[in-house]
Design brief:
The protein has 110 residues and is mainly beta. Helices cover 0% and strands 56% of the residues. It has strands spanning 4-13, 21-22, 26-27, 32-40, 46-53, 62-70, 74-79, 86-93, 102-109. Strand 5 and strand 6 (62-70) form a beta hairpin. The radius of gyration is 14 Å and the shape is globular.
C-alpha cells in the first residue's frame, strides 16, 4: 500500500501586490511529488512557476516547466512528475488583489 504526504507551502497568504511570493520549501527526498493543488481565493489570477533545487537553501534554482495560471476565486491543480530533492513555488499575482488569500499544497507519494 502506497503512503502519501501533503505539504502546505503557501498558507492563506493575503497577497496585495504583484511582487513574487516564494513558498516554503517542500522536501521530496522520501516522497515523490505528484500533484500541486492551488486554492486561489484572491480576486485576481495568479501565475505559478515550479522551482527545484538539489539543496534546501535554494542557492541554485531551476525553473521547471512552463508558468501556469490559476484564475481568481478558483481551485486548480497541476501534475508534478519531476524529481528534485527540494521544490517550491513562485507565485505572482497578475494584477494587485484587493481581497482574499492564497493556499498551495504539494501532494506526495512513495
Amino acid at each position: 500500500m502506497s503512503q502519501y504526504d501533503t505539504d502546505k507551502v503557501i498558507d492563506g497568504e493575503a497577497i496585495r501586490d504583484t511582487n513574487d511570493v516564494l513558498s516554503s520549501v517542500s522536501d521530496h527526498r522520501v516522497f515523490a511529488p505528484k500533484t500541486i493543488a492551488i486554492c486561489n481565493k484572491l480576486n485576481q489570477s495568479v501565475d505559478f512557476q515550479l522551482q527545484g533545487s538539489f539543496e534546501s537553501a535554494f542557492t541554485e534554482v531551476f525553473d521547471i516547466g512552463a508558468v501556469f495560471n490559476v484564475a481568481a476565486n478558483t481551485n486548480d491543480w497541476q501534475n508534478a512528475d519531476v524529481y528534485f530533492p527540494y521544490l517550491r513555488l513562485k507565485a505572482t499575482a497578475t494584477t494587485s488583489p484587493t481581497t482574499g488569500d492564497l493556499t498551495a499544497y504539494f501532494l506526495k507519494r512513495e
